[in-house]
Design brief:
alpha+beta; Beta-lactamase; 11 strands
Length: about 375
């Protein structure tokens, strides 16, 4: 079961979407190396209004003399929003440049696209759909979507929801990796035999959720995830891609939810500890640094989009080893560090030319470490 959408150019859709949202009012069991229950001290901002408690860098013993150098690095890399949260409270919050329409200054109320960092939202929502009894990860994808590729039935029926979550569907990514049309979805390898970063099977998880729940994807997302934690934002289709737009603070809210293993304060949004653990741990044997649409640091090797190459080092040598991340085009970063109760957000324009700007991520953490570890 799938939907057909009008297709516009990426830039045209950005302008149309941002005009619409601009009219609105802005007002897992994750392993903890230290063994302490750090999340018991987490702060949860109210789900409405602007109230958000803060820590001063001085109160945490951070080196404030290094903050300007960090901000200069970020500004030079076309950053729009940068947040660092400790225990759910904001420590650093920096905005620069113009909004996405290049009209007004970028502020805490400005919305930006998550790009592929938004995959983490879908990952969490799949876990909720499973907990709600709508799907199982080992369901054949065709059970919910019907005929959805140009492969034989035997080939197609081998692909499961789990394969879509782990970038191991076996679909051919050598053409337009975003294209969700049946004609674009062809056989390359058996599912599970190959890891390849491909947007199409990920995007089609929306159709799986929609068919299984018998609800519009956006409605289910808003009801189960966005609204209960006070996020703003909306999904929109830009060509084939389903892209989430929100403020940086809303990305931080989702980070707090993940840091607290699927609970918002005392409200359980994902009651499946095993799924949360699996979501942020190695999901297959090929790319050790990839979970269920989450990137994982601290592994012995990683792979990057567009390359069938194992790089024998962690994703970021400067970032904490237990960091899990949503990483998106042009440097959209959602970093969650359980051992330190840290959340680090970066939104902005392209700092380099990588699909996943791992070099910029590593350099950002090198600068941030000088602040956190004086």
């Amino acid at each position: 079961m799938s939907k057909t959408f009008l297709r516009f150019t990426y830039s045209t859709m950005l302008v149309l979407f941002l005009f619409v949202v601009g009219c609105k009012d802005d007002d897992g069991v994750i392993n903890n190396p230290g063994g302490d229950d750090n999340t018991s001290s987490l702060y949860f901002p109210p789900t409405s209004g602007d109230t958000w408690q803060t820590h001063t860098p001085e109160s945490l013993g951070w080196d404030t003399s290094k903050i300007d150098a960090l901000y200069n690095f970020l500004d030079d890399g076309s950053t729009r929003a940068f947040l660092v949260l400790k225990d759910g409270k904001i420590v650093l919050e920096h905005y620069a440049g113009k909004d996405i329409l290049k009209i007004s200054d970028f502020t805490k109320n400005s919305k930006w696209y998550w790009a592929s960092a938004g995959k983490t939202l879908t990952s969490f929502l799949v876990g909720q759909a499973q907990a709600d009894g709508y799907v199982k990860l080992d369901d054949k994808s065709s059970t919910h979507m019907g005929k959805w590729t140009s492969m034989t039935k035997e080939q197609e029926d081998k692909i499961t929801i789990r394969h879509q979550l782990t970038m191991s569907s076996g679909l051919d990514d050598s053409g337009n990796a975003d294209c969700t049309d049946q004609s674009c979805l062809t056989y390359k390898a058996d599912p599970g035999a190959r890891w390849a970063y491909q947007n199409a099977p990920y995007t089609l998880l929306d159709s799986v959720i929609q068919a299984a729940t018998q609800q519009d994807f956006d409605d289910y997302f808003n009801k189960r995830l966005r609204d209960p934690i006070g996020m703003d934002g909306d999904w929109t289709y830009l060509d084939y891609n389903h892209v989430y737009f929100s403020t940086a603070r809303s990305m931080a809210r989702f980070g707090i939810l993940v840091l607290n293993e699927g609970k918002w304060n005392e409200t359980v949004l994902l009651d499946d500890a095993q799924y949360i653990k699996d979501m942020v741990n190695t999901s297959q044997d090929i790319n050790k640094s990839y979970g269920y649409l989450w990137w994982l640091n601290g592994k012995s090797s990683h792979m990057l989009p567009g390359l069938q190459l194992e790089i024998r080092k962690p994703l970021s040598e400067n970032a904490p080893s237990d960091m899990v991340s949503g990483l998106g085009k042009n440097g959209q970063f959602l970093n969650v560090v359980p051992s330190q109760n840290l959340i680090v957000i970066r939104m902005g324009d392209n700092p380099d030319n990588a699909l996943v700007p791992a070099k910029f991520l590593d350099e950002m953490w090198e600068k941030l470490n000088r602040v956190i570890k004086p």
